[in-house]
Every structure is written in C-alpha cells, then in structure tokens.
Amino acid sequence: MTTKKPAPPRRRVAKAATVPPSCGTCAGSGETATTVRVGRKRREIKATQSALCPDCFGTGTA
Asked: In whole angstroms, how large is the CA radius of gyration of the chain?
C-alpha cells in the first residue's frame, strides 16, 4: 500500500498595511483651534482653545 506525501506548507504573501486617510481639517490630530467668544454680542478675543474636529469627531481619520 502506498501513502501520499503531505502537501508542502503554502507561503503567505504579506499584505501591505493600509494607512487610513487623515482628516484634512485637523491634519490627523483630532483637534482644531477655535477662537474664544465672550459677551452677549459674542465678540472674539485674542485667545484660542482646542476642540474636537467637527469632521472626524476626534479620531483623526476621515
């Protein structure tokens, strides 16, 4: 009786890692700078504060 040889192991080709596209508004950081507004008439002052990006909601990918 003859026995079959086991098949040689298949080689796997490594796939290239896909880089998710970064957000254009925040450049991938997830934060944007907004000006501070004060008063009843909402006048702008010379200060800024960081906020979540409205396009990607802080993930950095669009």
From this structure: 27
Residue type, 17: A
Q: For residue 5, give the amino acid letter.
A: K
Q: Which DSSP helix (H) or strand (E) runs through 40? A: none
Question: Average pLDDT per run of 10 along the chain, which is 62 residues long?
Answer: 84 80 81 90 92 83 72
What whole-number distance in Å separates Cα of residue 58 and Cα of residue 25? 11
Within 8 A by CB and 6+ apart from 33, the residues are: 48, 49, 50, 51
Task: Please give the model's pTM, rounded to 2 decimal places.
Answer: 0.48
Tokens 């669009």 correspond to 62
